[in-house]
Amino acid sequence: MKKIILLLITVVALASCGNDNKSVDAVIDSGNISDIKAKRTELNQKQRDLKSDLDKLNAYIDSHEKEERPVLITAEIVRDTIFKHYVEVQGNVETDQNIVLNAEYSGILTDIYVKEGQKVIKGQRLAKIDDGGLSSQVAQQEAQMALAKTTFERQERLWDQKIGSEIQYLQAKTNYEAAKNANRQLQSQLSKTVITAPFSGFVDNVISDPGQVVVPGQTPIIRLVNLNNMYVKASIPETYLKNIHDGTQVIVNLASINEEFTGTVKQVGKYINPNNRSFEIKVEIPNKDGLVKPNMIATVKVNDYESQKSITVPENILQENSAGETIAYLYKPINDSIGEAKRIFIETGLSYSNHTEVKSGLKVGDTLIMEGAKTIRDGQRVTIKN
Fold first, then answer.
1. Which residues form the CusB-like beta-barrel domain (predicted)?
2. Where in the sequence is the domain holding 13, given as residue range(s)?
3. Distance between the two ends of the chain, CA-based, in angstroms?
C-alpha cells in the first residue's frame, strides 16, 4: 500500500512539473541532451524529497497505530499449589556387602570351589589353602585332649569318694583345660585354611589361581557381592543441615540404566567434612532385577523445602528493575476483548524446575500475564489470545 501511494504521488508531482515548465515529452522532442539531463536531475531530486516526506508520514502513522492496537498476550488465573524445592547432588551407589576375601593363612592355594557369577550361601566353602601338616597336629592334639579328659574324669570320681590327694585332682583338671585350649587354638588356625562365604551373594571375581602362594592379609582371593541391600551415599552442603533429616523425601536417578526411584533418607551423617563443608546421607534403593551395581553414579534430589498452599509463577515472566525489585504484570479487563496491563511488585522465595515461589504481592484469583509479559509496559492495552 505504501509503494502504491508513493507511486501515485510521484506521478502527480511529475505531471505538475510538466505544467509549470516544459513537459518531459517536449524536452525529449527538443533533442537537447543538456536539457534532457537537467530535467532528469530535477525530477530525481523531487522524487527524493517526496520519499522523505512519505517516510515521516508513515513513521508517525505507525507509531500512533501501534499505541492504539492492543498487544496479544496469554494469561492464567492464579491458583495455589504444592511447591517442593530439591537440592540436587551427585552420589554413588554402594553396598556394605561388597568385600574382597583375603588369605588368613600362609601357604599354597590348593582349591577354588566356585566360579565367577556363581551364587553362594553364607558359610559355603569357597577355597582351600594347604595347611602344611596342621591337620595332623590337630588330630594328635585331639588324642591328647581325649586322654587328659579321661584322666581328669577318673581323678574327679576318686576325689568325690575322698580317694587320692587334692593335688592329683587339680593337676588332672589343669592338664585337661590346657589340652582343650591347645586344641581350640589349633582348630582356629586350621579353620583359616578354608575360605568360606561370610554372607550370601555372588562371586564377582576369582582373583587368585590354584597353586599360587598366598600371604595373610596381602593376597586377595575372591570378591563377593550381595546386591540385595543397595543404597546411595551423597554429600550435602552443610547449609542444608537443618532441613534434611531421617525420612526426608528423595528422588534418585540412575541415568546409566534409565531408572528413577523415590525413597527417603535413612541416615544423616553426624560429621561435617572440613574439606568441603558437607555431610553424608544414605538412601536405600530397590534392586529387584539386579541392574543396580556398586559404584554407579546417581543424581540425588533431596526435598529440603515444601509448602502445601503456595503460589508459583514461571521464572521467564519475571523482570527486575534498577532497584532490584521483582516485577510481574496482571491483566485488568476494560471490556470483553480489551484489557490493561498492570505492573505489580512481588516478593519471591525459592525457585525450582523453572518455577518461583511468590511470598507476597500476588493472590489466588488474580489474572497473571504469561506470554508477552516481558514486552509490555504498565498501563498498556492488551488482548488475550483466543
1. 232-304
2. 2-67
3. 29
Residue 236 above 50 pLDDT? yes
Confidence of residue 66 (pLDDT cuts 50, 70, 90): low
For residues 373 and 345, what is the distance between their CA atoms, to the nearest angstrom?
Answer: 14
Task: Return the percent helix, strand and coil in the chain, to nearest 5.
Answer: 35, 35, 30
Domains in the chain: how many in total? 4
Other C-beta atoms closer than 10 Å to the C-beta of 209 total 9
Helices (H), the chain: 2-20, 24-30, 33-68, 134-160, 166-191
Percent of the chain predicted with pLDDT > 70? 92
Question: What is the model's pTM?
Answer: 0.63
Closest CA to 98 of 298, 299, 295: 295
Q: Are residues 206 and 296 in the same domain?
A: no
174 and 122 in a common domain = yes
CATH number, domain of 357, equals 2.40.420.20
Contacts of the segment 131-139: beta carbons below 8 A, 24+ positions apart: 131/105, 131/107, 131/190, 131/193, 132/107, 134/186, 134/189, 134/190, 134/193, 135/190, 137/186, 138/183, 138/186, 138/187, 138/190
199 vs 75: CA distance, rounded Å: 62
Whether pLDDT at 1 is above 80: no
Residues 58 and 15 in one domain: yes
* Cβ–Cβ under 8 Å, residues 187 and 210: no
pLDDT per residue as tens digits for the range 243-302:
999 999 999 999 999 999 999 999 999 999 999 999 999 999 998 888 999 999 999 999
Q: Which of 272, 305, 338 finishes a domain?
A: 305
pLDDT band at 56 (very low <50, low <70, confident <90, very high): confident
- Enter the DSSP assignment of 273: B
Closest to 262 measured CA to CA, from 246, 285, 239: 285
Looking up residue 298, the CATH number of its domain turns out to be 2.40.30.170
SS3 244: coil
> Residue 240: how many CA atoms within 13 Å on its side-chain side?
22
